[in-house]
Amino acid sequence: MSPLVIARRVVEDEVAVFAGRPEDEEPERHGAPLGVYEYALTLHTQRHEGTEHRLGGEEGRAEGVLGQLPGEEPCVPKDSHGQAYARPGPMRTEDPAGFDLLSTREGYDRWAEIYDGDDNPLVHVEEPVVRALVGDVRGLRVLDAGCGTGRHAVPLSRAGASVTALDFSAGMLAAARRKPGSDAIRFVQHDVTVPLPVADGSFDRVLSCLVADHVHDLVSFWRELGRVCAPGGFVLMTTVHPAMMLRGVQARFIDPITGRETRPASAAHSISDYVMSALEAGLRIGHIAEHAVDDALASRSARSKKYVGWPICFVMRVEPGGESEL
Ligand SMILES: C[S@@+](CC[C@H](N)C(=O)[O-])C[C@H]1O[C@@H](n2cnc3c(N)ncnc32)[C@H](O)[C@@H]1O
Asked: Rounded distance, CA 210 to CA 111, Å?
C-alpha cells in the first residue's frame, strides 16, 4: 500500500491538515483551524475502515511540520511511546509558508526589542497564573531560569525576593537590565541546558517560564531545577501548551527589521513528556494546570481572538524529593 501522507499548509493564517495517499485525486482536507495531526490521522483511519494505521506507524509522514535546524532534533509531537505522531518533512531553515527559523538564542536576541509589547496571548494567560502560584515572595530566594526580559524577575524582586536570573540571550538580558528595579537582580548569561552555576538547594522558588518548549532533554532540565531548589521550596514551570504545538503554533514574532514571521527553534513535547520526565528526575508533582484563552481576554487582545477556548498554557509545580501523589 502506498504511504499515507499528512500535509500541513497555512491557509489564510490558519493551519489546515490534509490527509490522503498519493493516488488520491484530492487529499481530504480536515480544514482550518483544526491543524492537529492526530485528529487528521484519526479521521483518516475512521473513513478508511480496514486500512491499518497506527500513530507513529511506518506509513505516517508529515510535510512542513514545525521546522528543524541542521543538527537539531526534529520538532515533532510524540505519542507516549516516544513515537512521532507524524514524520518530519525534509530539513529546512525556511518554511514555504514564509517564516524564518532561527536558533533559539538568535531568535530571542532578535525578539528582545519588541518582546514585551507583542500582545502575546500566551503571556496574557500565563502572567496572572504565575503571580498566584508563586505567592508572597518577601524574603525568599528566587531563581528565574530563562528570565528573558525579566517579566517575572523584576516584579518578584520589587516584591521583596532576592532574585537570580539566568538567560543565554544577550538581547533579552539587556532588555531586562534596562527595566527600573533591575539593579537589585543578579543576572547571569547562561545556557540552562547545562549545569546551572548555583549551589544545591540554594533557592526557595525556582521558576522557568515559557522556556521548556525550547529544551529537548526535559529529564536533565528538571533534575537541575530540582537540584537547586531548597527542601520545602518548589519549582514552577510554564510552557506553550502541547495542543498549540499540534496546531502548528510555537514561539514566533514578526521581526521588525525583516518584516517576516520569525521563529526561535522550539522543541515539541506532549503533556506526558513533561509529566513523566519530572517523575524520572525524582520530583514530586504538586500541581498541574492547563489554561485557555477566554472571551474576556479576546475582547482586549486582538491576537488572542483566534485562540478562544484553546488551552494555550501548561503549568506544573513540582517539589524536590519524595513520591508523586499522582
Ligand atoms: C518565551 S521567552 C520567556 C522569558 C521569560 N521567562 C518570560 O516568561 O517572559 C523564552 C526565554 O528562554 C530563553 N531560553 C531558551 N532556551 C534557553 C537556554 N537553553 N538557556 C538559557 N535561556 C534559554 C530565551 O533566551 C528567552 O529569553
From this structure: 14
Nearest atom (ligand 1) to Cα of 126: 8
Cell numbers given for 280: 524520572
Task: Please state the rounded mean pLDDT for residues 39-48.
Answer: 37
User: Domain coordinates of the chain in residue numbers?
Assistant: 80-320
Reduce the DSSP state of residue 263 to 3 states and report it: strand
Q: Write b or e for each residue in 171-205: b if 16 or more Cβ atoms lie within 10 A of its Cβ, otherwise e.
A: bbbebbeebeebeebebbebebbeebebeebbbbb
SS3 helix, strand, coil % of the chain, rounded to 5? 30, 25, 45
CATH pick for 80-320 out of 1.20.1180.10, 3.90.1150.10, 3.90.1640.10, 3.40.50.150: 3.40.50.150
Pocket residues: Cβ below 6 A from ligand 1? 104, 108, 146-148, 151-152, 167-169, 172, 191-193, 209-211, 214, 251
What's the pLDDT score for residue 249? 84
pLDDT digits (tens, 9 = 90+) for 221-277: 999 999 999 999 999 999 999 988 877 788 999 988 888 889 899 998 899 999 999
**What is the CA(148)–ligand 1 centre distance, in A?**
5
The continuous run of DSSP H or E covering 104 comes out as helix 104-111
Specify the amino acid at residue 234.
Answer: F
Query: Can you tell me which atom of ligand 1 is nearest the CA of 105?
Result: 25
Convert the pLDDT of each residue in 48-77 to its tens digit.
Answer: 333 333 223 223 333 333 333 334 344 444
Q: Please state the pTM of the whole predicted model.
A: 0.76
Residue 117 burial by CB count (10 A; 0-12/13-18/19+): exposed, middle or buried?
exposed
Contacts of 275 (CB under 8 A, 6+ apart): 285, 288, 316, 326
Q: What is the mean pLDDT of the chain?
A: 78
Give the separation between CA 172 and CA 116, rounded to whole angstroms: 10
Q: Is the pLDDT of residue 11 over 50?
A: no
- As a whole number of angstroms, the distance between CA 164 and CA 36 comes to 38
Dist CA 147 CA 145 (whole Å): 6
